[in-house]
Specification:
Elements: H1 3-15, H2 18-25, H3 29-43, E1 48-50, E2 55-57, H4 59-85, E3 91-97, H5 106-116, E4 120-126, H6 129-138, E5 143-149, E6 158-166, E7 168-171, E8 182-183, H7 185-188, E9 192-195, H8 201-212, E10 218-222, H9 226-234, E11 240-242, H10 244-247, E12 255-259, E13 264-271, H11 278-287
Parallel strand pairs: 3-4, 3-5, 8-12, 9-10
Antiparallel strand pairs: 1-2, 5-13, 6-13, 7-11, 7-12
Helix pairs in contact: 1-2, 1-3, 1-4, 2-3
Length: 292
Amino acid sequence: MELQQMRYVVAVAETNSFTRAAQRCLVVQSALSHQIARLEKELGARLFERTSRRVRLTPAGAAFLPAARQCLDAAERAAAEVAASLGEVRGRLTVGLIPSVAAVDIPAVLGEFHRRHPKVRVSLSVGASDDLVEQVRQGAIEVAFLGIPVTARPRDVMARELARERLVAVVAPDHPLAGETSVDLRRLAPEVFVDLPAKTAGRAQSDLAFAAAGLTREVAFEVTNADYLARLVGAGLGVALLPPSYVAGLTTGMVTVEVTNAPARAEYVVWGRENPHPAAAAFLELLGFGEE
């Protein structure tokens, strides 16, 4: 069983196509198909169901895929460790982040990292804080930037707090609150809100604050993307509570109103408890952090 055969299987599984997999792997389709057929013969099982309209994993293929990915990751890490011993950082680095991260200038950091380590392939994964922490725990991503309530702390990962800030109310320019210099949660409670989905860390910051004040509110619009959330506010569909550092970078026409008893959030950078591979270690070193 060869690593190249595993790469081909993973590529077909991820693209659902022998043609697209061959293009990704920079080989002719006949060569890719031949290698997968050899592997299937060696294993004594078909890995893919092939029809004229689709390609999908068989149960045997679904069982084979996670182990194939682990083998490829191990081989890539082994090569990266050897290169690191010779003073060269290379390999792959996946960085997770929430859309509203503001404590770190991510593009600037990535630019500097690429200048220092041009042979590292960087992937960005944008998502919700809770999901990103779980992916770090599982090793699917190496480093993640989060925003969570100040009363919480990431668990079962290495973590460093980057910043804290109190949220501000954001409204459309023609909203009745646009002329106010400050409001409190009781004044905001009757408003219609635009917010992140329930039970996410970004939503919890506001939910906990209203609950602590003995107040309820109506969240009429839930969105998974903070950028689109701001667009809905700008269109006058509701009020949102957002970090001021994030709002400062938006171009959508909105008005910011200070909230006297506003909820607060903390931004963290997190990484796995296991020894980070060379690319992740170099990225954490650039941030000023490292293994604890």
